[in-house]
Amino acid sequence: MSKVYGEMFMSDMKVRKWCRNFDAGRTDVHNASGQGRQPVSTDDLVQRVDQAIRGNRRFTISGLSDLSPEISRSVLYTIVSERLEYRKLCARWVPKMLSDHHKTQRMGAALTFLQRYHHDGDEFLDKIVTGDETWVHYETEETKEQSKQWMHSHFPSRKPVKFKRTFSTKKCMATVFWDRKGVLLVEFMPRGTTITATSYSKTLQRLRREIQNKRRGMLSSGIVLHHDNARPHTTVATTILLQRFGWEVFDHPPYSPDLAPSDFHLFAHMKRWLGGQIFTTDNELQISVQNWLKTQAAASYDEGIGKLVPRSDKCMNRNGDYVEK
Fold first, then answer.
1. H/E segment holding residue 52
2. Are 290 and 186 in contact (CB under 8 A)?
3. Does the pTM of the predicted model rise above 0.85?
4. Which of 173, 176, 178, 147 has its CA nearest to residue 160?
5. Other Cβ atoms closer than 10 A to 300
6. Can you name the CATH fold of 100-142+167-318?
7. 3-state SS of the chain: helix, strand, coil percent to 5?
8. Do the Cβ atoms of 48 and 42 come closer than 8 Å?
9. Reduced to 3 states, what is the DSSP secondary structure of residue 137?
10. Which of 287, 259, 295, 289 lies closest to 271 in space, CA to CA?
11. How far apart are the first and last CA of the chain?
C-alpha cells in the first residue's frame, strides 16, 4: 500500500491502532475535541520542522513523522510544501565543486561582462565571436525526452522500454566559431591528432579570413573573442597572435561551461539533434554536422549570444555558483 500511495499513507502501526479502536466500538474517524493530534500548525512547530529539514536535506515525511509522532503526516506535508515552500529536487551533475576562489573569478567575469553590456548594449554583443571544441560521435544515444512515445490511456501497462546497448566509440573533434548572425568556421581535427598552440593559431588565422569574407566591416569595428581557458587558447604564442590581430579577448573563468555559449546553447542543441542517429564514416558525420550548423536560423545564434546577459546576472545573484538555466 505504501508503494502505491506514497509517504502520505498510514504506517502499519497506525492502521492496526485504528482497527483496534473500531473493534472496540468506535464509529467515527475524528479526534474528540481537545484530544489527540492538533490539526493546526503553530509557528513553533513550523520552526521545528524547518530546523529538522536544514539538518538533513534528504528528509522524508516519514522521517519527520518519526521525529514528531504527535503530528499527522498530512499536517507535516502541508507545513513542508505550503508554509515553508520546500520542493524536492534531483541533484544535478556539475563540472567541478567550485572553491571560493573559483566563485570569485566567476563573479568578476560576470560583473565585467554586465558592465560592458550596460555601457555598450547590443553593439557589444555584435562584436562577440565565440568558439569551442566538442566531440561528435558516430552514435549518440537519445535523451529520455526524445524517446517518449504517445500511448493510449486504455493501455497504461504497455509502457515503452529501451534496451541498454553498446555504442560505437568512434568520434571526431569539431571546432566551431560563431557570432550572433551564424557560423563563421567549422573544422574537424584529423584522427590521431590533438589541438596544440600551433594548430589553434592556424585555426585563428583561418577564422580571421572567414570573418573578413563573411562579415564585412566587422574586423575594423573590433572583435571580442570569447573562448575558454584551455591551454592552447592561453599560450604565449596564441596571446601574441591575438594581440597582432588587435582582438580583445574576453576573460572566461575556469570550470565555467555554463557561461560559454557553445556549451550551454549551440552544442546542447546539436547533441540533441544527433541523438538516435548513426553514422558510418568520418565524412558522413562531418558533412551532417556542417549542414545542421548551416541550416540553423540566425535567430538561434542571436539567442545564444544574448543568453550571456541573463546568465551573467544569475551568476552574480548566485554568488558565483553554477547557473542551470
1. helix 43-55
2. yes
3. no
4. 147
5. 12
6. Nucleotidyltransferase; domain 5 (3.30.420)
7. 50, 10, 40
8. no
9. strand
10. 289
11. 38
